Inverse folding.
């Protein structure tokens, strides 16, 4: 049985363990949060290095993207270098493959996204998702400046996003990661911000912890397209009036794991060095596994209409 472990900067309250069988092989999939303790993440990875089949790097990105450029986050490099034997990935390989496929699937089979107003909380974090939403004709509000840097300026085109990224990214990736993204116990805190853009959007897309931290008290009739959610998150979104929840990764024992976990799982199956894996390898594996997004109708009327 293969063991896949995500060691995360995130809250330990979101820890989870599940078993799965894929392509005839059994896996234990586990998430271990360290409540924002970077040194603890490094320590755990060093302890388990060579004893597990693949690591996911949780609660932090190794890479963020804009246009054709990839930027490496300084704090994440320390985590990557702690794994000397076991492969370690941050989920970016799936964000640029699986999440593109998910948006196309939603557009073709669930809801026509053309002209829909979409608040993309961070395009640099989920560039594949953002770019594909743009390609299918969604009307994007890109929130990287608002939610990552606390600069109250929405970006309404990829042209302006690329221009801002070219100037800011080389600086941003050298900042302490906790200044850019909720880590540890901050993941359980809510500080609503820029509610106007949540209210105007028909769809809210991107990393769930960004959405959760800044969302207003009500999200009536909204569609959420995101990644990792717990059963508690689902209950909260339902109580806030969310119409539909779509998660890009499949469900294991009532929980969708993050893209870093799922990429680590795929790496263990592909059985190549991480640096030798190309997007087509992920595409081929996703086709074999027939991964489909999880679609939950949280509004009772919507649920009855789709039964």
């Amino acid at each position: 049985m293969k063991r896949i472990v995500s060691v995360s900067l995130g809250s330990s309250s979101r820890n989870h363990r599940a078993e799965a069988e894929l392509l005839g092989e059994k896996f234990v999939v586990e998430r271990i949060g360290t409540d924002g303790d970077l040194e603890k993440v490094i320590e755990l990875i060093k302890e388990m290095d060579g004893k597990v089949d693949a690591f996911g790097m949780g609660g932090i990105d190794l890479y963020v993207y804009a246009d054709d450029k990839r930027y490496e986050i300084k704090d994440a490099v320390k985590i990557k270098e702690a794994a000397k034997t076991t492969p370690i990935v941050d989920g970016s390989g799936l964000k640029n493959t699986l999440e593109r496929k998910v948006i196309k699937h939603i557009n073709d089979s669930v809801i026509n996204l053309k002209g829909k107003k979409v608040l993309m909380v961070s395009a640099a974090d989920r560039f594949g998702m953002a770019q594909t939403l743009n390609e299918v004709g969604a009307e994007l509000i890109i929130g990287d400046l608002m939610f990552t840097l606390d600069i109250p300026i929405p970006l309404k085109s990829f042209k302006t996003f690329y221009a801002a990224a070219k100037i800011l990214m080389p600086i941003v990736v050298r900042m302490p990661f906790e200044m850019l993204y909720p880590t540890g116990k901050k993941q359980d805190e809510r500080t609503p911000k820029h509610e106007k853009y949540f209210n105007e959007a028909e769809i809210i897309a991107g990393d769930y912890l960004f959405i959760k931290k800044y969302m207003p008290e009500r999200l009536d009739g909204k569609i959420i397209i995101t990644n990792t959610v717990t059963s508690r998150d689902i209950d909260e979104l339902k109580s806030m009036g969310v119409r539909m929840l779509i998660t890009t990764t499949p469900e294991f024992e009532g929980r969708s794991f993050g893209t870093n976990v799922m990429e680590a799982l795929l790496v263990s199956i592909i059985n190549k060095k991480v640096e030798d894996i190309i997007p087509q390898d992920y595409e081929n594996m996703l086709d074999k596994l027939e991964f489909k997004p999880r679609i939950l109708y949280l509004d009772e009327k919507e649920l009855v209409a789709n039964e």
About this structure: Residues 35 and 184 are 3 Å apart (CA to CA). The domain at 98-251+293-305 is CATH 3.40.50 (Rossmann fold).
